[in-house]
Amino acid sequence: MTSGAGDERTLSLTLRGSPAEEVSRAQSAVSEFLGRHGEGPAAISRAELLLEEVALNVLRHGFDAPDTPEVSIRLAREPAGWAFDFEDRGRPFDPTTAPLPPPAPSLAEAKVGGFGLPLIRRIAQSLRYERTEDGRNLFRLVLPPSDPLRS
Predict the structure, then answer these.
(1) Separation between Cα atoms, residue 150 and residue 111, nearest integer Å
(2) Contact 43/151 with Cβ under 8 angstroms?
(3) Angle 45-49-53 from CA coordinates, rounded to 5°
(4) In the predicted structure, residue 96 carries a pLDDT above the cut 90
(5) Residue 42, φ and ψ in degrees, nearest 5
(6) What region, left, alpha or beta, does residue 67 occupy, with left being phi > 0 and alpha being psi -120 to 50 degrees?
(7) How far, in Å, CA of 47 to CA of 35, rounded?
(8) Where are the domains of the chain?
(9) For the domain bounded by 2-143, which CATH number is listed?
(10) Residues 6+ apart with CB under 8 A from 79
(11) pLDDT tens for each residue of 51-83
């Protein structure tokens, strides 16, 4: 993971290599960054969860071998909340329109995986996806502002 130079209000990261290790390091950086900006444990946990869901899926499923998976992440405070911008050059995938898996009839019959998209859509305040002409995926999600009673 590399951390880019940014101002005090912006965190920039680039993840490549081992997905689990990279995402874990990125979660630590996001946790520390949000903590410095006064966010409480609940808001930090939501941010870490969204980061994990999006970044792991990009790194694990977004690229064909022998391409080296890489995703750039920018986190910044905006009036609407905390904006995560994810950018990669993997296969096109629009998480805002992808169909959700059908619910399992029971917990015992539930399959592992497939819960990321519903989770992202439920937690994030807004989602936006764009595939650029030069082959980049741009995905933005915004976490709602902290609720002091819940954070």
Answers:
(1) 31
(2) yes
(3) 175
(4) yes
(5) -65, -45
(6) beta
(7) 11
(8) 2-143
(9) 3.30.565.10
(10) none
(11) 999 999 999 889 987 788 999 999 999 999 999
